[in-house]
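Budget justification note: compute hours in this period were largely spent on complex prediction jobs such as the one shown. Inputs:
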Amino acid sequence: MSTTGAKVHDVVIVGGGHNGLVTACYLARAGLTVLVLERQQYVGGAAVSRSLYPGFTYSNCSYVCSLLRTEIIRDLDLPAHGLQIIPYEGGCTMMRDGGHLAVYDNHDAMRREIARHSHHDAEAYERYVRDMLRHCRFIKPLLLREPPDPTSWRLRDLGELAFLARHLYGLGEARIYDTLRFFTMSCADMLEEYFESEIVKAHLSGSSIIGTALGPRSPGSAYVLLHHYMGSIDGAVGAWGFARGGMGAITRAMAASLQASGGAIRTGAPVQQILVRGGRATGVVLADGEEVRARTVVSNLDVKRTFLETVAAGHLPPQFLEQVRRFKIRGSSGKLNIALDALPRFPAIPAGSPAIRGDLHITDTLDMLERAYDDWKAGRWSREPYVDMLIPTQIDPTMAPDGKHYMSVFVQYCPYQLADGEWNEQKRQAFGATVIDAISRHSPDFKDLILHAEIRTPREIESEVGLTEGNIFQGELTFDQLLFNRPIPGFAQYRTPIDSMYLCGSSTHPGGGVMGAPGANAARRILRDLGRGQ
Amino acid sequence: MSSRYDCVVVGAGHNGLVCATLLARAGRRVLVLEAAPQVGGAAVTREFAPGFRVSAGAHLLPAMSAPLGRELALHRHGLELAAASVPTVALAQDGQCLPLDDDAALAARSPADVAALAAWRALQRRFAQALHPLLTGIPPRLGTQDRADRARLLTLGWKLRRLGRDDLRELLRVGGMCVHDLLEERFELPLLKGALALDAVLGTNLGPRSPGTVASLLYRAAVAPGAGGAMLPAGGLGSFAQALARAARAAGAQLRTAAPVARVQVREDRVTGVVLEGGEEIEAPTVISNADPRTTFLRLLGAEHLDAGFVRRVSQIRSRGMTAKLHLAVDGVPPFSELPPQALRGRLLFAPDSDYIERAYNHSKYRECSEQPVLEITVPSASDPTLAPAGKSVLSIVVQYAPHEVQGGWQGQRQAFTQRILATLERCAPGLSPRVQAAQLLVPQDLEREFGNQGGHWHHAELALDQFMMMRPVPGAAQYRAPVDGLYLCGAGSHPGGGLTGLPGRGCALAVLRRSAEP
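Corresponding output:
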């Protein structure tokens, strides 16, 4: 075992995903010496741009910038480090019968489009948007706060609990019930209270199932919809859109910001173990045996990978380990990245409509989404999957050669564990074919245009990014794993049972998506523990 | 009849009778009006084939919350039990069975589950004790400046915290969880998990993988913490209703059956009484409805007396039933091959594993009947021979999932669904079908017609987290008081929910009495 000189870093961060980088940036800006260790040859985790086919750049995991907190963009000065976000111009949900519901940024245009399907729903849409924005405004201040421990008597926790109670009571009685109902309802029940048209309900419910092991009829799925609206309340244009150069542009800007504040990054440096002495984290050991010492160790890995694979079991209380083991992190999503020879035609979308420049979905009823979920429960990929397609090269031509296009296809549902045995190459191809067939039904020339397709099941997501079971949120977003329960009750404040060791990944509050909030919250907690907080 | 009453109770279901009894004891002049020729609502014993009698709605009597049990003292009003604590037996696909109270039988299949089950039951008991205060009394309102509401919230919070740190953390974690995940964490044996999961979804519109099903399991435990298992009244559930009626009469309440209420009278935003379908008017400053909230507000009261927003909420209450009943008249003893004879007196659950239930539930989402339904079977004649002719048996079976509005309508599907249930039964009781002399299937639409609850739902309103506590049945009527002065709700659609607990009736009586104590 070699030791790199006598240098002891203030902080070592295990994993250079977007949250690891956000934590690193805040800590470096506070004057600490920070080193980020990344297993891959590139940083970014699941927010990456990769060239997997000559001339093309794929956002091969996450594909849309919707949740990244504006506070973080501002604090880390990301635009100055090269981040450009180009807003969506539209979107479209295509029905099996050839019909469609286009999505427009312009509220009035959207209303008119809905009225094409139902006048009642066009009216209801006004109410719906108003209510959703209200729910967003309620949840937003909670994202960048540490969840209180409701079982503690510490002043800070009691204070936070009082803040929550005041925040809730501030809504007024009627709104309180609306809010409580909204957070406990199923997406389908919630939408059925507003809308009558199947396509409108199906279109809106799509974002309630992305990345989850729930269907639109599962209670608790309604609030996931907020993720779609979170961007639009910041008032910042482009909070919801494409990152120019792919998702990797976000993490590249973060890395540049980190280096500008004096932080260091080592890629190709897989951490094998977090070192613990006397109940305190003292550094890490890399796969090649090199020891890197640090006063504080922060893990950007998911909670299972952190505690079951990177920390020796003897350092953790058995009850804690048991809780880590039962943390639910089942993968449910797949992804296809496709290089296209030309822009495919979608006859359902009117020529010249900006709809094709946004996200395209294939679905037409809530039942179809629910049946897709039933397939996942039964241990097979959805025979009629929900797909969320984007062709970012229409707006950002840097991602493909002239005239050619890159298409990102997110697929829900795809299980990590198949009922009929392990995944193999043949099954992976069959999964890809199911998705491509589904798209082809809406685009006659699609198959002929495919130059290359990267097919990712949760297995591939796990092996490349390191997310256990390929769960894109580092843990399911269900009641039992949110707020003070995330990731483990009693350890929701970024601390761990080991002194000077912290978590900063999406396994922690407020959860997944390229949001950065867990990373920012973890940094704040660390600084406060080091006596450097405000 | 011109005598004036203080309170008129519309509907003599068990909650209406409980409410009437408690109000009469507090000195109110109470009249209970029941549309049916007999009292009891869904707690009723009926002859469904010559010589065969069965509890047509609910078929087991859960233990009552201790204070209510003491208050009513039904044994003094003639309630006799055919079985005091009905044991639960899980049936497997191959006819094998597992009595849930028999540690030795469980140990033979899964030693680890013996300890796991004991630990879970102990934890559930502690949760039940802590949650019980939440389910009794009037739920506090949120967001008000009212001192009583705030005090009550603080008291409830305090009682929960008294669980201690570890238990409270666990409660806050599992409270919103789905029962499937909870059982996966704790148990090994699929048969055991199936039986426990069934208890969480019985009577609801949810599957084991639906978040919120642990809450429904805890609800069952918390309505009567520390009490024994379910009971079987001698003569069926109708006897329970009769005893309640006697208790009400003894307290001074008057009961009229075959007296259907057409509407609630309102003058200047105040309830003044009710009008019967025959046109007879009965005056009373307080009208208490045992009917489901939708019937109460939209049919008996009328939307014109309510805010548009409130009416919308009421019409959005989820109340579509999923639970059917099948009654079988059987020649001889039902041939549950592996079952020891005394186990026939138990509650036999056919839900071999949690995924089986989930698959049965899947169909219901698309308004289809389960291809392979889940069953809660009782053989009441095994404990109470008066229910069937000598040498014959009665089976009373709760069946899920049978949607209220099934695709294509119930008309053509009754026979087919009955056959599916019988085919399912054949697996654990081979040779049963040829012995069936008569069968009666009651689907949610029948229950709706017979018992008058819209949607035919056990709980009048789905027992889900978004229709719970101060949101049950809808905000604005969750403290038993309707927005129209003088009108109250006392049915299963009110806090805390259904299931022969009597708690909504009791809570409503408290609300009425508290109101009259106000200046």
